[in-house]
Amino acid sequence: IEITAFPDNGQSISGMTIKEVVEECKLFYLAGTETTSVLLTWRMIVLSMYPEWQDHAREEVISLFGKEKLEYEGVNRLKTVTLILYEVLRLYSPAAAFFRKTYKEIKIGGITYPAGVLIELPLLLMNHDPDIWGRGVHEFKLERFTNGISQASKNPSAFLPFSWGPRICIAQQFALLEAKMAFCTILQCFEFELAPSYTHAVDNIRLMRPMHGAQIKIRAI
Question: Which CATH superfamily is domain 19-220 in?
Answer without folding.
Answer: Cytochrome P450 (1.10.630.10)
